[in-house]
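Good morning N.,

You mentioned wanting to compare the apo and holo forms, so I went ahead and generated the holo version with alpha-methylisocitric acid. This is what I fed in:
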Amino acid sequence: MAMNLTHKILQAHLVEGTLTLGSEIGIRIDQTLTQDATGTMAYLQFEAMALPKVLTELSVSYVDHNMLQTGFENADDHQYLQSVAQKYGIVFSRPGNGICHQVHRERFALPGRTLLGSDSHTPTCGGLGMLAIGAGGLDVAVAMAGEAYFLPMPKVLGVRLIGTLQPWCSGKDVILEMLRRLSVKGGVGRIVEYHGPGVASLSVSHRFTITNMGAELGATTSVFPSDAVTKSFLEAQGRGEGWVEIGPDPGASYDELVEIDLDKLEPLIAQPSTPDSVVSVRSVKGIPVVQVCIGSCTNSSYEDLATAALMLRGKRVHPNVSMTVTPGSKQVFEMIVRDGYFADLIAAGCRILESSCGPCIGMGQAPPTGGVSVRSFNRNFKGRSGTAEDTVYLSSPEVCVACAIAGELTDPRDIGIPAIPMATPEHFLINDNMLVFPPEDPSAIEVHRGPNIRPVPLAEVVGNQLEAVALLKVGDNITTDHIMPAGAKVLPLRSNIPAISEFVFMRVDPTFPERARKAGPSIIVGGSNYGQGSSREHAALAPMFLGVKAVIVKSFARIHRANLVNFGILPLTFVNESDYESIEQGDQLRIDDIAAGLTAGVLTVQNLTQGTTFQAMAELTKRERDLLLSGGLLNAIKTKQNQPAAV
Ligand code: MIC
Ligand code: SF4
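and this is what came out, ligand included:
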């Protein structure tokens, strides 16, 4: 039978289940990646599994999120990460080497393989035919231990591309068009597979932008075929031997189909404060802009920066605009310096930042009050930039530069310069001296553990009855940035759950941590797509530490739901969404017969305050149910190994 690419890669890695829609499958993971902000927890959890080394083909530990080192915490974390990598057979990418998704695609990603990363933009590597999935750190730790990764068999959404991109349009416009059509919920439960005659005209740089921002659709991952374009890219990276041709069989079918005519796309922009509020740039032209940032794992490739530099050559950044440029990796940085583009950017007035996530995760460059910021990034959730009431737009580097020159929202077709055709280099500059490979014999390696590295707290096993207060009621599309903010103040505490839990729901309700501590067991009530965005397991772990026992919502985002299960929090959905209205914040709720309810898939929730009753669904696989009943994945692993209950 003709197979699509997704099914081919899944089939080749299947260790449990069958490729039947909705049923749980377990797949073998070839490669893993972590970054510093999720990595410390992942490695603490891996260490708790007491294995001598990782059992994957390749595991890489990146440092890219928190590089400010405003105190000892961050520097300690870096030392822990480097030493733990040496000890357990993991490649360490030193701070300065670049953003994990940029470096991984340059130096490690391989077509036809699987990658699990503790970062929601891990799907970036799908741009060269890899099945790359984002997950919580604990799932990644388990994959490093050689265990399967479990997921519900997703639908495959085929995106047929026809035509070719028109001047000034890019991969960013393709994915913004997808977001415009499908919304931030449109990819939930789906793998997005790009195919069709339009694929061949897209450079890998465009493809990576598209697969990267597939995370914003809520998709499990996105994937492109590996073709002649992929081959040239891998050869240019000196890795041609890793190329295999892999794509859908002729006549392969998809569960759903979308068609995008590349000829018809125009420069697009996502308006504040959600990546799916997409309109044409021309429809919002003229709005004054005070900040422009090019960078992030979405758009900081050599091609992106060289294009920006050529657009800025001989021009200057508008006097009212502060413009930053972040090369995505050391390779990109070195190449733009070597090729003279760095000088164009500086001459035009750009501020150059080191290769890291930087402003994308609120590490500096918070925009001014009321000021419009235009960024080549992937997320513009309110407050993520570091300014609570921010106004952040998302667009391609080309649109960013047009806005920087004009000082207002501007379509690059309207700035009077000819479009810049940008080819992928024939040879990338290869200098892997910021990668530290593990030694053959790690017996002499001591793991550095500074005072900021604190044990991972364990969940309490869910009892058969729960009486708890509905401590917080929130609406739709709550992101993990709402639940567990990042930024310069909070990120240094990622290895210290007691300390970071003080910031849970900080921007939604700053009284939450204190109220939670006083309340004892608590429940969060929410709307649809709860937990969208990042993979940070701290958005489950820190609420768990504060006593949250269940989350009852209209629907969940995939990674966050998995993280809740891993940390023993009941993820429940309303059988009738209208019951959401009947709960007031502060109501006392009670759930009886939890074990039986979890098995039946439905629990009865009594609202003791309102005197009402409603049904909540527990859509769990047997594996997830067992995890919840044993207090989450870490407890389950510990029980399996019969170890004492402390990390
Ligand atoms: C993000 O873009 O939100 C992050 C920061 O990269 C997160 C990971 C984290 O919170 O550490 C992600 O996307 O998973
Ligand atoms: Fe880093 Fe931003 Fe990419 Fe997340 S989205 S990995 S914070 S650059």
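The pocket of alpha-methylisocitric acid (ligand 1) is lined by residues 37-38, 65, 119-121, 361, 486, 533-536 (CB under 6 Å).

Happy to go through it together on a call whenever suits you.

Best,
F.
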